[in-house]
Amino acid sequence: MVRSGTQILSPVGIQQAGRQHAPTGRAGRGEKGLAIGLLNNSKPNVDFFLDALKKEILAQGNGYEVISVTKPRSAAPCPDIDALAKRCSFVINAVAD
């Protein structure tokens, strides 16, 4: 949707029935499978969300490795972002208050 030069993107993924999408991440494909990074921005309550997400990912039993990283301060850049990108196929950046 585009209005007045602003584009609004939906975070909801849409898949067609019967079609499987292969992961496109270039890193993190080890013997255990894909690695998923969880980036905590250090704001209040984000740890509850990421803990629940990690439990859900691991409960799926797909062999995903989950790598959790916490930024030292919410307003600061993540000092480990390059290492996280190399280790993971996907990274979920969680923001909360």
Structure characterization notes:
By secondary structure, the chain is an alpha/beta fold. It has a single domain, classed as Rossmann fold (3-Layer(aba) Sandwich). 22% of the residues lie in helices and 22% in strands. It is built from 2 helices and 5 strands. It has helices at residues 46-59, 81-87, and strands at 2-3, 6-7, 35-40, 65-70, 90-94. It has a 3-stranded parallel β-sheet with strand order 4-3-5, with helices on both faces. Strand 1 (2-3) and strand 2 (6-7) form a beta hairpin. The longest helix has 14 residues, at 46-59. The protein is globular. The two termini are 28 Å apart.
Feature tags:
97 residues; alpha/beta; Rossmann fold; three-stranded parallel sheet; two-stranded antiparallel ribbon; 5 strands
Quick recap of the structure?
With 97 residues, the protein is α/β, with parallel strands linked by helices.
Distance between the termini: 28 Å
Q: Into which percent range does the helicity of residues fall?
A: 10-25%
Parts with pLDDT < 50 across at least 5 consecutive residues: 21-31
Mean of pLDDT: 78
Rg for CA atoms: 16 Å
Helix and strand content put the structural class at: alpha/beta
User: What is the N-to-C succession of helices and strands?
Assistant: EEEHEHE
The proportion of strand residues reads 15-25%
Describe the strand arrangement of the main beta sheet, using strand numbers.
Answer: 4-3-5
The CATH class: Alpha Beta
Characterize the overall form. globular
Overall number of structural domains:
1
Biggest β-sheet strands, sense, barrel: 3 strands, parallel
Q: Tally the helices: what do you get?
A: 2
What is the level-2 CATH architecture name?
A: 3-Layer(aba) Sandwich
